[in-house]
Design goal:
Helix content: over 70%
Number of helices: 8
CATH class: Mainly Alpha
CATH architecture: Alpha Horseshoe
Structural class: mainly alpha
Radius of gyration: 21 Å
Distance between the termini: 63 Å
CATH superfamily: Tetratricopeptide repeat domain
Shape: globular
CATH topology: Serine Threonine Protein Phosphatase 5, Tetratricopeptide repeat
Mean pLDDT: 85
Strand content: under 5%
Largest sheet: none
Number of strands: 0
Length: about 160
């Protein structure tokens, strides 16, 4: 019985050591990418606040910075639906609906039920006069039991204007 305790103690120590070493071995590139992502999100949140305060030029400046960071991140780590969602969002906020839509569709190819992408793409479709496609996005969200569903439903119905 004592031999088993010693064995498992040694095994646990070994696994912890390997985990710590592995976590540290790539920390520079991972933390750099993570911090760039965090910086982009912070810029987006700041831009949204500027919009609320009607400081449109400052908001646009932050959307441009965030977009640039996200494009670089997407080149380093392609295939991330969340990044594509934010790329679609910032691109759309900068007035480029065509490329915003492309990013959203790339994200949906990876994660078809992505709540954020489906809502934002639905909003883009409403703004560009394609209500039938917005309704398709709403149908995808119908079973999510999320606020994004109600938000898009209200925007499609004209009860609400997209805040994004």
């Amino acid at each position: 019985m004592n031999i088993l305790k010693i064995f498992f103690s040694i095994l646990a120590s070994f696994l912890i050591t390997i985990n710590l070493y592995a976590a540290g071995s790539d920390s520079n590139s991972t933390s750099k990418i993570k911090s760039d992502y965090d910086k982009a999100i912070k810029l987006i949140k700041s831009a949204k606040k500027y919009e609320i305060d009607n400081k449109i030029k400052k908001a646009e400046k932050n959307y441009k910075k965030a977009n640039k960071i996200l494009i670089a991140y997407n080149k380093k780590k392609p295939g991330n639906a969340d990044i594509l969602n934010y790329l679609g969002f910032t691109t759309r906020k900068l007035g480029d609906f065509k490329n915003g839509e492309k990013y959203y569709l790339q994200g949906l190819a990876i994660e078809p039920k992505h709540v954020g992408i489906n809502e934002y793409l639905g909003e883009l479709y409403v703004v560009t006069g394609r209500h039938n496609l917005a309704i398709e996005r709403l149908e995808v969200l119908s079973d999510c039991n999320c606020e994004e569903y109600q938000e898009l439903k209200d925007i499609i119905a004209g009860k609400k204007v997209s805040k994004y």
